[in-house]
């Protein structure tokens, strides 16, 4: 049984790798230049200048451990194309550079594969019936990671691999190792701080407050386990901490990103604009200008970082209270998984300057809840349909229309089919949910065909009219 399981996993992994290789020639975003510039910074400058360099707008704004990762990549890159490591060589894209950076993402996905493998192994200890091939496909062929990492260009798969490793450790009751791995993740990308409340509450209740252990000793061990990665990461920069923190938490970038994430603040901005227009007031265009900066709203109260923080914590509290006060040992691990999903989703809905890509922080862990209960599967499907579709504007190149819709529809069709196949009594969508899902099929048809058809018909009528 185990050998069959292994062979299926590696077959799916091989298939996903082939798909990623096929996507190498595709369009890439400005994030490609961002990471090329970080390679140049790490290679060209002494360590104490990394977080001060402002040669161009793509300044280093990830934690030091990720900067060390870029430094290691640069050691290899210098043998591939030294020109990519020139600090003033902005927007440099050679064939060698493109292949190097694309393959670096594919190779680092080995970490994601390891995380998925360990997580699936840990998941089996929960005695939950699930289909390995389905879980492997949902994870290794995840359409969001294909969009963001292998077309748009980032290293999210690598980071999610570390996340899955940390969760798997906690599911296997390896608390100290899980804490260390999660702390390592925070030093690679600090956005995962939004998941920290779920990890913190779980470790507090089931490790520190465990009656079989000394609370003081447990807290001390856990503190040391969590601080070691921070000491290694930030130690060489201890004299530059204020500068690093200003880069990691740039509150001057404004409430929303240039392309709004589909969250509460997108609705808030829209409501402000609609009300201002209805009242014939001048509209503050800054938040629709595509420029990343602070701005004031026209009618509704302007939002500050503290307000978003309070709302985010308030949204997290119900699941955290349940995890701390109302969860038994037998159900704790599933509740922990739900708390990871809900904490990240709370931050996506109410956080400050949220990027649209952050929805993956909820969708990747949600893949495991797909097998827990029919209602979990239903909500995973609904959120996936909306979340992956919301990434389309990042793939705006016209050559990607067929690719993005093909990958999206294939993934969602597979997910829907497996949901209906796995549950003897499939979760029933109500009328509004059915219409909501249908909208993701009808909207592209309207966007790409109906509008064009009306336009060209109108153009023909005008040109043919004497």
From TrEMBL:
<feature type="transmembrane region" description="Helical">
    <location>
        <begin position="435"/>
        <end position="459"/>
    </location>
</feature>
<comment type="pathway">
    <text>Protein modification; protein glycosylation.</text>
</comment>
<feature type="transmembrane region" description="Helical">
    <location>
        <begin position="160"/>
        <end position="185"/>
    </location>
</feature>
<feature type="transmembrane region" description="Helical">
    <location>
        <begin position="99"/>
        <end position="118"/>
    </location>
</feature>
<feature type="transmembrane region" description="Helical">
    <location>
        <begin position="306"/>
        <end position="324"/>
    </location>
</feature>
<feature type="transmembrane region" description="Helical">
    <location>
        <begin position="358"/>
        <end position="374"/>
    </location>
</feature>
<dbReference type="GO" id="GO:0042283">
    <property type="term" value="F:dolichyl pyrophosphate Glc1Man9GlcNAc2 alpha-1,3-glucosyltransferase activity"/>
</dbReference>
<dbReference type="InterPro" id="IPR004856">
    <property type="entry name" value="Glyco_trans_ALG6/ALG8"/>
</dbReference>
<feature type="transmembrane region" description="Helical">
    <location>
        <begin position="130"/>
        <end position="148"/>
    </location>
</feature>
<feature type="transmembrane region" description="Helical">
    <location>
        <begin position="219"/>
        <end position="238"/>
    </location>
</feature>
<dbReference type="GO" id="GO:0005789">
    <property type="term" value="C:endoplasmic reticulum membrane"/>
</dbReference>
<comment type="similarity">
    <text>Belongs to the ALG6/ALG8 glucosyltransferase family.</text>
</comment>
<keyword id="KW-0472">Membrane</keyword>
<keyword id="KW-1133">Transmembrane helix</keyword>
<protein>
    <recommendedName>
        <fullName>Alpha-1,3-glucosyltransferase</fullName>
        <ecNumber>2.4.1.-</ecNumber>
    </recommendedName>
</protein>
<feature type="transmembrane region" description="Helical">
    <location>
        <begin position="379"/>
        <end position="396"/>
    </location>
</feature>
<keyword id="KW-0808">Transferase</keyword>
<keyword id="KW-0812">Transmembrane</keyword>
<keyword id="KW-0328">Glycosyltransferase</keyword>
<feature type="transmembrane region" description="Helical">
    <location>
        <begin position="336"/>
        <end position="352"/>
    </location>
</feature>
<feature type="transmembrane region" description="Helical">
    <location>
        <begin position="191"/>
        <end position="207"/>
    </location>
</feature>
<dbReference type="GO" id="GO:0006487">
    <property type="term" value="P:protein N-linked glycosylation"/>
</dbReference>
<dbReference type="Pfam" id="PF03155">
    <property type="entry name" value="Alg6_Alg8"/>
</dbReference>
<keyword id="KW-0256">Endoplasmic reticulum</keyword>
